[in-house]
Amino acid sequence: MIDGLLQAVPSVGPLTWVLIGAVAYTIAAYWLDAEGYLPESISVSGPITTIHTRRGRAFLNWLAGPKRFWRAWTNVGLGATLVVMVGMFFMLLQQGRSILENPPAPSPVNEPSNVLVIPGVNEFLPLSVAPEIIAGLLIGLVVHEGGHGLLCRVGDIDVESMGLVSFAVIPIGAFVEPDEESQRTANRGARARMFAAGVTNNYAVTILAFALLLGPVVGSISVASGAAVGGVLPGSAADDAGIDAGDRIEMVDGQAIADGGDLEAYLANSTEESVSVTLGDGTETTVERSLLVTRLSAGSPFDRENDAGVDVNDTITAVNGTEVRTERGFREAVSGRETVSITTDDGETTTAPMGVVSRATSPALPGIGGDAADHPLNASGFPTDDSFTLLSIAGQRTLTPADVTAALDRKAIGEDVEVVAVVDGERRTETVTLVKDYRDGREGSYLGISPVSGYSGVGMSSLGVDYYPAAEFLAMLTGEGQSLLGATLVVLLLPFIGAVGGAQYNFAGFVAANRNFYEVTGPLEPLGGGVFLLANLLFWTGWINLNLAFFNCIPAYPLDGGRILRACVEAVVSRLPIEDKHTATRAVTTSVGLAMLACLLLVVFGPQYLK
After folding, report:
1. Model pTM score
2. Ramachandran area for residue 343 (φ above 0: left; ψ -120 to 50: alpha; else beta)
3. First-to-last CA distance in the chain?
4. What total number of domains does the chain contain?
5. Which is deepest, 56, 249, 428, 437, by most CB within 10 Å?
6. Same domain, 131 and 259
7. 530: exposed, middle or buried (C-beta count within 10 Å: 0-12, 13-18, 19+)?
8. Are residue 440 and residue 486 in the same domain, yes or no?
9. What mean pLDDT value characterizes the chain?
10. What Å distances lie between residue 543 and 81, 488, 601, CA to CA?
11. Are the beta carbons of 549 and 206 closer than 8 angstroms?
12. Which ranges does the record mark as transmembrane (predicted)?
């Protein structure tokens, strides 16, 4: 009975627990404040707590000594901040407009809980790197607000107090509280530099962190040999053999494996139905191979909308009545027939043509006039808008896209070739005249066929694992082949690059899920696993500081961008023949701020409520 009641209770998500904790914290904090247990330096406003201190002002006065250097430093930062401010303004306007006109489907990327930089609540920020994320956040907050305080003293603006802001017990900000009267009497240049100082320091920390990360740290990390197992498909041969995500396959049947491609090539040519696998930790296991269907491409003749079709996660047991358990066995069983019967482990048998699922390339061929009627397939009677199953070209059987390329190799422009395909369930044989290949950098003849997927769109694996792109992520971290802007964008996207379509997996640093795929071999090898900890700290410090800088450049009060906007508007309005300059300034800054707030709300909540 108790178990039944517990199962009936709905699961509580991380965000709900955060809200419950915030309410409990607020009640406790108000009670402590009412009873006089909290010192005057701590103030509570709901779950937001601020801690004020007057200490450190003497240090700021000392640090502000070389005023000419600090003015020059923040003048450079102010220029960069103005450029980013303008970019953020137009980017948010465009994003808000796009969401209003065509709201995107809800996805993990635009889930409101994933806007919060809270490990465990934000699904892209794992708890395993929470210390590094919090450290990066604290560094960003300290240098940001420290910059404001430093430039206050450089501009002869008094500082009332400094401190930290927390959401319950989680630090979310820091602050420097300038003296209001002193700030009003300071010149606009001093105030603008003071507002830009925090963002400037965040840029500096980002550059330093990424320079260290992409230089000596990542230079000491290399990809370990072996096939990196990112995931294991349920019911696959690897699953049955006890292989898990995070394992690394180093050897198969005594043969060393360099990477996932090497393993796939070995399995594609092996006829052994049972193979011995050695993992990176020395564990040996035996895999009893079986053909798991991993993919059905659009247009596959085996994809049926009824119970007789082949489905993903089915296991192929026989082809044309002959048992098959390997990729090579499947290829040999289907190579001699245009139509084959596939039997799956649920006892169903599906008969369909076996070839390459194909489509015609774009009918507009620049090299031959751009007229759809001139497309070689269209001219011969094949469809140019629907997929079909290609069986052979010039008498050569086509089972894979590589077979299509081989069949057309060395064919001359103007040569006629016989093309056999199944179109809308009907076998058709047509003679197609090859044309000149119009594509850039290509020479030779062109048929106009774009292979989509081999083996009639049925993807299969006798092992059943997904490979983790360890080498690709390491290359992204180093900025290999990227411009500075491109490398920056890639780094910003890495924590959720899998969700935005850039990769199959996200990269949150060198964590438990992927650390087995890397090893320390460079100049920092004596540090051992500490290199991974250092890499995570630098990665998240740079990532958070860059995001803090960009966010604070939004031209909306009370962000730094909003304060800089006000200073700029005041400078412009002061030169205009307007009597009420204060009202004009407030009208401009308020309008821009409200527009930015509306766009931010659309970005965070629009996909959930407008779709």
Report:
1. 0.77
2. beta
3. 41
4. 4
5. 249
6. no
7. exposed
8. no
9. 83
10. 17, 9, 23
11. yes
12. 12-32, 72-93, 484-507, 527-546, 584-605
